[in-house]
Amino acid sequence: xxxxxxxxxxxxxxxxxxxxxxxxxxxxxxxxxxxxxxxxxxxxxxxxxxxxxxxxxxxxxxxxxxxxxxxxxxxxxxxxxxxxxxxxxxxxxxxxxxxxxxxxxxxxx
Length: 109
Description:
Elements: E1 4-8, E2 12-16, E3 22-26, E4 32-37, E5 44-49, H1 51-59, E6 64-67, H2 84-95, H3 100-107
Parallel strand pairs: 3-6
Antiparallel strand pairs: 1-2, 3-4, 4-5
């Protein structure tokens, strides 16, 4: 059985079975990554990986997930950027005891 050597941010170098490593390939830009949960500390780890290693991981038995970039990336983004003040105002609106949704809808008009 193949052994995959990887690095956990907390534990350092570790060894994994192929089924413990998930390979992800974006079909739109061909960027790839692998992810696993450290068997020692249970922290999730994800790292980019070169295409040649995708083939090696897949051939050793690691599952491969194919995905697309979200369509929202192609949508037009108009209007001013959201500021920290906007976020604070929104937070205060959500923490009010009164009907925040009615207030939010009236402010948006």
